[in-house]
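Quick note —
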Amino acid sequence: MLRPVGEGQKRPANLYTSESEDTDPGLSVKRFFLVRWYRGLTHGMGQSRSFFLPFGILALCGLGFHLGFPALQEGIDLLLRMAHATLGIFGQGAQGFLDLPARHAAVEVGALLWAVLAALWLCVLSMTVETETEGLGYVVPGSGLIARCWAVIGKRLYQLKQSFKVLAAYLRDLNLAKLHLPATVPLVVLLGFFGLADALDNGLREVARIAPGLAEHPGWIPVTAQITAAVVAVVLGLPMLLGALVRAHRRSVQARERKQGLVHRFLRGLPGLLILLPPVAWMVLSLLAGRLG
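Predicted structure written out below.
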């Protein structure tokens, strides 16, 4: 015997269905099939965000590192030449390990390995971390007109208070990871923005070349490319930065709870400070110098 849904049966959840979640009968526009489809689709995409976000971060890092790859090669070559000159103190035999062919091979292989490992490293660091919600959040003090008017100000005061609490908690267990990530991640996002803008610019110019009438007024191409790249950089960059900071903070709290030494806790993030930040900063400075010069 069939029983209606609700009597011991559960309706199977489909993230991409077009069923409306709104039960308010007063808003008939939300029952329109296109609106229901759009709401169901965006709800499903939001639920799948944690799955697609790492691929977006990898793509953004890849575009940025592709754009800064020549500068990265120059930086590695500079370091190898400095090491070659330093080895000259110990004689010609020591310099043989870094002769010209060996340096050229080391530059190509080293730059490629760094770009791949850095992209994967940043993707893992920036993966979203589920945070536990404490309390009920801001509660409107009453249902009257005065209470709701005050809620406009009261909610902002509550958010400001919560922001100070988060900042104080972040600064409590300060370490090298917490110091370099607020600089490293935005620099990588900036590289990704320029790389995506260049890619979109080239793609739109190819479209305008084959589409009649679009090539006559090419001024819209760089503006469209930059606006689109900026939107993508913000959509991917903010979760990337937030995820990296939350993960670094959670690890620092866990290290304190395990009663690790103060020096050991502070040095957490030293590999990232030495391996991630200098090459990324070098690529950004070289890029800006080339475009502003």
